[in-house]
Amino acid sequence: MQLSDRVTGAVLIALGGAAAIFGARLPAVPGQDVGPAAFPMLIGGGLALCGGLIAFGIGHSFEVPEEGDDPAPPGSLHLGRLRPLIPTALLFFYVLAVERLGFLPTAAVVVLLAAIALGARLRLAIPLAIIAPLCVHLAFYKLLRVPLPAGILPAPW
Amino acid sequence: MHDLLEAFRLVAAPDVLVAILASAIYGLVVGSLPGLSATMATALLVPVTFWLSPIAAIATIITASAMAIFSGDIPGCLLRIPGTPASAAYTDEAYAMTRKGQAEMALGAGLWFSAIGGIVGTLSLVLMAPLLAEMALSFSTYEYFWLAFLGLMCATLVARSSPIKAIASMLLGLLISCIGMENPAGTPRFTFGLTDLLGGIEPIPALVGVFAVSEVMRAMVTAEPPKLPKRKFGSILANQWMLTKKYQWPMWRGNIIGIIIGVLPGAGADMAAWVSYAMSKRFSKEPEKFGTGHPEGLVEAGASNNASLASGWVPSLLFGIPGDTITAIAIGVLYMKGLNPGPTLFTERASSMYALYIIFIIANIIMIPLGIMMIRAASVILRAPRAGVMPVIILLCAVGSYATGNNLFAVVLVGLFGMLGFVMEKNGYPVAALVLGIVMGSMVEQSFITSLIKSDGDVMPFFERPVSAVLAALTFSALLWPVGVWIWNRIRHPRLPAGGATG
């Protein structure tokens, strides 16, 4: 996900500009000069300015170069450049599935897929996918009283 | 005196003692695992603090963060991979000592001087906080605005990156904090019609996403760190007294630099370690030995990062302005537990403050025996496969962020912030500045808008009051510092292409 400074700078200009424009349209508080619009306009303007400076490469000399990406760990899923999206995708899956399936099955799927994506053997991934959700459920449901949904597979406690 | 006795009673409660011990072990283990930072350890603790008494909640945060900052030294020393960013400054040095066969001395120095740094930092907190509290009672919104702004500027100044990118990160954080209706006018802003966004973006999902999820993402694209060979350690503390006497001055310098950097709002332990290591090399009698396994820098920087941890609580407790990302989390917990930060905390809740000091001292003392046990167990714990640890972290991110409000939207936010943090880090945008922007956004806006309303839109009162004038001058010098460095570099090396990073 290494992008050039021109790209990130342009994104910041667009974002800052949008924030300033939409911020300026916010309704004012009657009888007051400064209202809810002032701060977003200021921030948006500053952000757009920074974006411009970054796009022109100003301040680049201060940066410490970061090491490049290592090759993917062997024996894992070959998704190429989409690999970093796996954790977020798993979290979104959790959000969509947890109410219907219940905590234990959803968590087991999340842990299993994450472990396999990181190159774990099934000998490690399957026991982990069974034990970790049970431990987390015990800690959060029993001790911390977080209402985790039961779904199709209620916990034994 | 009565308050002090009351404080001892508060700390001696069984739940507090259990919380200290459990969070100490948790902090040591998490801090030692590469990729799991002290900030992340603290962020994942927040849902647990909901169900603890106020003092026990604060105790878990203090203890876990102190332990994690120390135990980050362990993989740095043995594998040349810093366990936490705060150890990165001297990882090469510690590893060079291990290769010379002095692993015990390097680990012992990390442990011994971490504990000393932590205790000296705590003493500075005890001495400084009440003095500053007297002063802070006379502060008005103008001073609070400059303090918050200065904190944000410090966060951008100390980032090891382009200052402009750091400022952009900080502004992005402030923009994110605009979301919702928690602004002086109570107008819903940037909610895109989503009711979930009306309440604004809480700092905890942002922190968990930026520091934990993005770390799992990084694990997806990097190779697994090498396994630690099994080894037996000799005596850990054998030579430490000798080192203490030999490097007394560097140690004190490290403590003082750590305290100063900790007190500066926005600058934390990792910066303290970098600055102290550089100072140590600059003022050493034998600078040529640095990098070859020389303990002097280790002594200074190891003391410095732990000293900054305690003094980072000074601005947090007094003004509600985080000293670093860890205290940014702590402030949230303080509010949740009814210990709202502010100068009155020291007059009205004195016993709680004493209890906090006592917990700091206890944490730094038990660090030594527990740290020795951790070092001896390191070869087992560091063998934990990454593919086994990271999936559990993902699960804890989901459950932990859900638990903060029993709301699944927080889990979505964690995923989005994870991506944002990953992309930002890859492109040289410091994420700590983003987080501080999110945490401090509402405070900056509140004090700014209220001040403007008070002065009828006039900006002069921001500079006319004596304390606010001083703070304004400091803020502008922080803002102009990178420009000065840039011009200085141009004058000294007129024809040199971009290089020679300073700052």
The count of strands of chain A amounts to 0
> Nearest-angstrom radius of gyration of chain B?
22 Å
Return the average pLDDT of chain B rounded to an integer: 86
Structural class of chain B: mainly alpha
Q: Counting H and I runs of at least 4 residues, what is the number of helices of chain B?
A: 23
Q: What is the overall silhouette of chain B?
A: globular
Q: Report low-confidence residues of chain B grouped into runs of 5 or more.
A: 496-503
Order of helices and strands of chain A: HHHHH
The overall strand count of chain B is 0
Give the CA-CA distance, first to last residue of chain B: 46 Å
Which structural category do the helix and sheet elements of chain A fall into?
mainly alpha
Overall helicity of chain A: 55-70%
The helix count of chain A comes to 5
Oligomer: heterodimer
State the shape of chain A: flat
Strand count, sense and barrel status of the largest sheet of chain B are: none
Percentage of residues in helical conformation of chain B: over 70%
Please describe the biggest sheet of chain A, giving its number of strands, its sense, and whether it closes into a barrel: none
Order of helices and strands of chain B: HHHHHHHHHHHHHHHHHHHHHHH
Mean pLDDT level of chain A: 84
